[in-house]
Structure formats: C-alpha cells, structure tokens
Specification:
Layout (H helix, E strand, L loop, with lengths): L8 H37 L7 H7 L2 H34 L5 H9 L6 H12 L5 H8 L13 H25 L3 H9 L4 H30 L2 H6 L10 H10 L3 H17 L2 H9 L22 H26 L17 H8 L1 H34 L7 H11 L2 H11 L12 H25 L4 H8 L4 H12 L1 H16 L5 H4 L7 H12 L1 H25 L8
Helix pairs in contact: 1-12, 1-16, 1-17, 1-18, 2-12, 3-4, 3-7, 3-9, 5-7, 5-14, 7-9, 8-9, 9-13, 11-12, 12-18, 15-25, 16-19, 16-22, 16-24, 17-19, 19-22, 20-21, 22-25, 24-25
Length: about 575
Amino acid sequence: MSLTEAGGRSARLVVPTTRTAVGLGCLALVAYFALLPLALLVVKSFKGAGLFDNYALVLSSSANLRAVWWTFAVSAGAAVVALAMGLPLGWLVTATDLPAPRLWRSLFTLPYAIPSFIVALAWTYLASERSGWLNRIAVEHLGLSSALLNVYSATGMILVMGVFFSPLVLMGVAESLARIDPALLEAARLSGASPGRALLDVAWPLVRRSALGGALLAFLATAASYGVPALLGPSAHPPVHVLTTRVKAYIDLHTTRGFNQAIALSAGLFLLAFLFPLASAAMGGSDRGASARPPRPARTRLGPWRWPCFAAVAAVFFGAVALPFLALLVSSFMTNAGLGFSPENLSLIHWKTVLSRSDARTAIVNSLLLAGGAATVALIVAGLIAHGEARSASRFRWVPAALLSIPYATPGTVLAIGSILAFTGGWGLNLFNTAWILLVAYAVKEGALAYRMVREGLAEVHPSMEEAARISGASWGRSIVDVLLPLIRGNLVAAWLLVFMPSFGELTMSVLLFGPQTQTVGTLLFELSSYEDPAAASVLAVIVVVVVIAASLAVRRLSGGRHEGY
C-alpha cells in the first residue's frame, strides 16, 4: 500500500482527480496549439478542385523541382560533412587519451546552440568571394588567381551546414563509445587484432547506428533550415533555392494561389519529419553491446600520435568554429570593412549606431520578452506533462509527451504555416500579426526540450516524498510547490534556458509570423544582413551570440555537464 493510499479517502479521491484534470488540460493545450496547426496544414494541402491539384501545381513548376533537387543535394552534402567531421572527433574526445577531451567536446558542441543563420553570417565575413578575409589574403598576399572558398555557393552552404550540425554526429558517437565495454576491445587485441582492426571490427558496429542516425538528423535539419539558404543561396551562381525559401517566396506573393502552393510545399516538408523514425527503425532498434555504461570506458592510447592529434583537433576547431566567429566579432568593430584590419580601422561606431536605433532596441526587447514568455509557458506545460507521466499509473500516460515531440521534429516553416491556418480566427483564436502567435510558436516548437530536462529531474526524486506531504495534509499542488520544485530547481532553470536560447534568435518561424509591431532580433538581423547594413548586422549577431553562449554555459553547469546547452 502506497503512502497516498494510506492517507485516507480524501487523498484517494482528490489527488487522482486533480492529476487527471491537469493531465487532460495539458493534453487539450497540446492538441489545440501543436496538433491542430499541423492537421490543418495536411488537410488544406488537399483542398482544391481535385484531391492532388495543389501538389500537381507545385510539381509542374521547374523552379520547385530545382528546389527539391537542391534541398536533397545540399542536405546530403551537409550530412556527409557532419559525418566526416563528427565521427573522428567523437572517437578522439571519448575513446582515446587525447588531452583535455571534455574541453574539446564542449567547445565543438557549444556553437550548435547559436542560430545557424548567425553562423552563416560569420562565414560571409570570412569567405565571401571578393571581400572575405581568407580570400583577400589568398589573392593579395599568396598570389592565388581565385578565391579559396566562396561561401555564396552550394559548396559554401554544404560546408556551413555540415560544420554546424556535426555535433549531432559527435554527441551520438560519443554516447555510444562511452557505453562500450572495454573487455570487448581487449578481447580483440588479445586475439591478435591491431588497434585499427579492433576499432573497425568491434567498435564501429556498435556505434554505426548512432553515427548514421546523427548524419540523418543533420540531413533533416538542413532540409528544414531557412536562414542559411536564404542568406547564401540567392547570391550563388547559379542561385540556389531550396524548399523552405520557395515557401517564403510563395507567401510573399500575397495571393490565395501562392498561399495554397506554400501549403503544399510545407506538407511535403512535413513528410520529411517522419523519415528519421522510419530510417531509425530500418537500421535496428539499438546498438547491441553498447546499452549499459561500463564503470571504466574503453580508451585507445594514441602513443606518438597523441600530440599531433591534439594539434589537428585544435586546427579544426580554430578553422571551422573559432575563426568565423572571430571574423564576426572583429567586423563589428571595423569602421570600414573595405579597408581591412588595422588598429586605426577599429572603433565603437557601429555599436553606438545599433544601440541607438529604436528598431534594434525594440527587436531586442521583443525577443527577450517572447523568448522568456515562451520558455515560461513551455516549462509549465511540459513540466506538468512530465510529472503526469512520471507519477501516473495510466497506460496512456505517454500520450501527451509523444504528441509534444511532434512539433519539435517538424520543420519550423511547416509549423509557422500551420499556425497561420489555425490562429487567424477560424478556429477560436485570432493571433495573426500579434506577438502571441510568435510566443505560441516558440513554446510549441521547443516544448520537448523542457520536457526532457524536467523528466530527468523527476527521475531522481522518489514519489514517496510527495506522498508524505499529502499525508501531512498538503494538497496536490502544495506538495509539488513545497516539496518537488525545490528538489529539481536546477533542472527547471536549465529547462527554461533550453527553450529561451533557440527562441531568442529564432528566424525560420519568425520571418513568416512577425507583424508590423513584432519585429524580433532574428527578423531584424536578416533584414540588416541582406538589404540594409551588414556592419550593424554583425553587432546584433554578436549580441545574440553572447546571450546564447551565456545561457548555454548556464545549462551545462546546472545539468552537471550532462547537457551541452541544446
């Protein structure tokens, strides 16, 4: 008999009733704000004279077919780059005696918390064809006849997205390697296998699913990205347009026909979200032999290659991660970017200009309020869902959490189009062109992150502590506030920050949902970098990077290093 059952008839009746009511309320919120937009999107995509008229219309366009091709080509290329970079790095920082492995792991995963659009913007200062620092050095000082790399190209997009999403592979490989029993590798060595053969025959089969799964996630995330292709694609030769930028182009037509085609393209993107679970099932359920974390992780001694590997890792980090952001930071202080780097060309003029602009201040305040509000709403709803799943005995307690994960796996463009369909008055609420539609979109999109963090905290608290409080006369709500929340305070703050970070600089949904009075940091940054003032854009980007990195470091500290800030 549980303590709750011993608490008397009131505990038996009131507590389950309250918990059930809260659970049903959370389920209704998730269904209305998360599932209704996606359901309407799918239904509306078939609306027309014929069932598949909208799809036939978009597929009859040569521009759309080229966008489909470029989407798959760029996404596949980015997945290959992410795999080529993340796999060896994951092995080096986890399964070898490389110096400072935890530091390198944090350094390579930290930039993933930064919006990909800002990463692409940083690369433009480094590798644009004519004015990029690397290309200017190559042409003016090394005597090369052409640029080393033109970031305004399909190759540039592949490189930027591949590097940005390589932590998906790195973290998956690292987790699988950490669970390999050292006895397996030792047995292979005792049987006469070389270190390389032991890795190929023993370790690789155990981490293959995680590595390929991370590459597949990189593929899907690239296909769903808007900011990077919108910044780099139009200036490429020939121009590179992908599905997400084609959706935005149809929306900008401001016609019913264009909106219907945007819906059809978005529904096609939505189908990509189901590719990962299908492919994951096809690859097998788990990495057998790597399911339990051993007390002593398997590590390969690098011997004389230890310091050369350290230098190689440092060079990769400097070239792929640190150098672009250094270029972004320095550019924000350069009076005239065309004059190159010199002490005389450095000033605070762009910082003073940006901070004095009313639209910049408004955008920063809007983003802080929207990100903070979305994080608070997501924390409350996801926290109640996590608590219901952790403490309920119902067979269906997993349903709200499963539904909450669907928007997280859905491309932001798709969720934004669905939100326009659902929240323009026809289905209860009219949130269009208001800050509320942005807040709802942010909270719905990132709610699964808050759920995961809260669920981990609840797993460390035994239910008997809440039951003891209820036996002492506390209500269900009071037992949570007085007993449970203080015990998982760190997880709650980390969960709040996990939603705040991506919401603060969000662009993909914001560019479709913001209104005249709801300019955000992401949308203003996009306008400045694309049309108005690239120097001001670098300042605003640095501000976003500082805020996001500070929040990411806080998440890592609060989670005891279990989460790298995303």
